[in-house]
Amino acid sequence: MSEIASRNIHQHLLNLLEQQQARFHVVEHDAIGKCEAVSEIRGTALGQGAKALVCKIKGNGVKKHVLAILAADLQADLSRLAHHFGGLKASLASPLEVETFTACVFGAIPPFSFHPDLHLVADPILFQRFDDIAFNAGLLEKSVIMDTQDYLRIAQPEIVDFRRLSV
């Protein structure tokens, strides 16, 4: 994955947010991959973090790639995600697939799909607890904190319950 491609996603994202008059700001920080550490640096709650997972869904004639957005303090239930799309199983995509569909390294993926074959879904709880969400913005060392309603208006994810439910 070239640094240039990743930087282009970062700039593309900022251009989109500016064009759409989103309420957001950029936070620069050390390139830390852990959600807990990044949320502390950003000054946001862990649950405000929008974790982006590139998933493959297969089975029952379904073969689909999905960018699944989840609050960083929760875990994904990939079987619920597969079931939603009529598939039998879902798994995390390989690093090569992540690069192909997002032009980002794992951990830097923003919660926006810029690839026509990457379907964007988001778990609703991310938007129910906080007025702002936070996420890495195409680069491990840059985050965006933005208004939740602006995110929903601009990204228009399909809302799908796929978080792991406590037992």
TrEMBL record:
Residues 30-153 form the YbaK/aminoacyl-tRNA synthetase-associated domain. Pfam families: tRNA_edit (PF04073). GO terms for molecular function: aminoacyl-tRNA deacylase activity. It comes from the Bacteria. Gene3D superfamilies: YbaK/aminoacyl-tRNA synthetase-associated domain. This is Ala-tRNA(Pro) deacylase. It comes from Kosakonia oryziphila.
